[in-house]
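hey
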């Protein structure tokens, strides 16, 4: 009896050790990691950043203040890593982050004309923080709040999940808005950003991330020789205050056409009313979409380093902003001075001022619905 039991236990042990060995052999070597580090404090609590590193060495640092992407290091064609996003060395810089470097933007990305719109017959009044207009969520948008953060790992990669509940009436927007933004670093050097939100009153939502990219590395000159392709036949022209006129205008035959890869700087000073208004590119492009899933919005190729960024999104639009308002007054990381065109932004979004343009895709979110959007920044080399 005793010998039989010993044999059974022995066989069970052998079998479980084998199973474990097989599992290890069949699962790829995981070298990706998340580390958490203190970055300072704000009145609402401690600020930490989370460093996600994948097995190819790409790393992303994101912090719970504003959900800001603090750094993003990707290899060039020789395998040399560089940080390709603008930002600051210390938390202080981010507390006065006028250009919104790397931040989550909400509740409404870009502008709302005269800081007002009407929902179900009720007028919503927002802070006018950019001339007469409301910009990027108002005086204290999602870029300036402390988000709750959790980290986890799944088959796709490693993620940090930021959550924040914006109270009914915050910055003038109706409804308690429960927001969740997930950053996932994947093994294929892709950073995926997933946005979700629910409300208890009808409201308007348009979320994005405001990273400023320079594929040569932040602080390494301007982005005028970066080659850009945008999958868009139309854009939304703006008035003198950068509010869309409501027209969806063809880009054909204009310096706003990026259907064929073209250096960002090739036509930036061309004689064009829209470029003059914005002092460069600061326009929402209407993406040529086939369906509702992830589709390629644009591709940027930096010839010197060979770094390539592709942006995929479920959103109908993308804001191309070429850092026109950067004027050398901001000193960022490592003492780098950020001059005009030191970076470009590709902010995936619904169109600016949509609540005031019934012909634009709707940004209305009702109780019972879930806002969901996804964007992937895919890095490679050429
Ligand atoms: C806007 C610009 C603005 C920049 C920084 C972009 O999304 O389109 O007009 O200056 O953000 O706030």
């Amino acid at each position: 009896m005793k010998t039989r039991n010993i044999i059974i236990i022995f066989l069970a042990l052998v079998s479980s050790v084998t199973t474990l060995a097989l599992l290890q052999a069949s699962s790829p070597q995981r070298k990706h990691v998340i580390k958490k580090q203190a970055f300072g404090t704000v009145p609402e609590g401690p600020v930490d950043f989370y460093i996600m590193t994948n097995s190819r060495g790409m790393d992303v640092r994101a912090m719970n203040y504003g959900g800001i992407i603090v750094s993003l290091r990707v290899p060039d064609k020789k395998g040399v890593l560089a940080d390709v996003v603008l930002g600051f060395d210390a938390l202080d810089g981010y507390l006065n982050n006028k250009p919104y470097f790397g931040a989550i933007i909400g509740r409404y990305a870009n502008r709302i004309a005269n800081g007002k719109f009407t929902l179900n017959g009720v007028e919503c009044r927002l802070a006018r923080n950019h001339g007469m207009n409301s910009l990027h969520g108002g005086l204290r948008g999602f870029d300036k709040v402390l988000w709750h953060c959790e980290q986890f790992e799944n088959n796709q990669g490693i993620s940090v999940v930021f959550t924040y509940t914006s109270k009914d009436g915050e910055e003038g927007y109706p409804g308690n808005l429960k927001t969740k933004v997930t950053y996932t670093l994947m093994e294929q050097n892709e950073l995926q950003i997933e946005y979700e939100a629910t409300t208890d009153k009808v409201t308007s939502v348009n979320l994005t991330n405001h990273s400023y990219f320079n594929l040569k590395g932040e602080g390494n000159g301007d982005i005028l020789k970066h080659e850009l392709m945008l999958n868009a036949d139309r854009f939304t022209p703006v008035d003198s205050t950068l509010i869309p006129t409501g027209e969806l205008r063809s880009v054909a035959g204009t310096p706003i056409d990026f259907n064929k890869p073209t250096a960002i700087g090739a036509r930036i000073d061309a004689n064009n009313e829209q470029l003059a208004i914005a002092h460069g590119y600061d326009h929402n492009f209407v993406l040529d979409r086939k369906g509702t899933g992830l589709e390629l919005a644009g591709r940027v190729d930096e010839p010197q380093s060979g770094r390539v960024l592709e942006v995929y999104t479920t959103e109908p639009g993308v804001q191309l902003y070429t850092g026109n308002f950067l004027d050398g007054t901001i000193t960022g990381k490592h003492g780098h001075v950020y001059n005009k065109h030191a970076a470009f932004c590709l902010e995936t979004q619904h169109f600016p001022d949509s609540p005031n343009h019934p012909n634009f895709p709707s940004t209305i979110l009702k109780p019972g619905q879930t806002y969901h959007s996804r964007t992937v920044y895919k890095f490679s080399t050429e």
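The longest strand covers residues 371-381. Confidence is low (pLDDT under 50) at residues 10-28.
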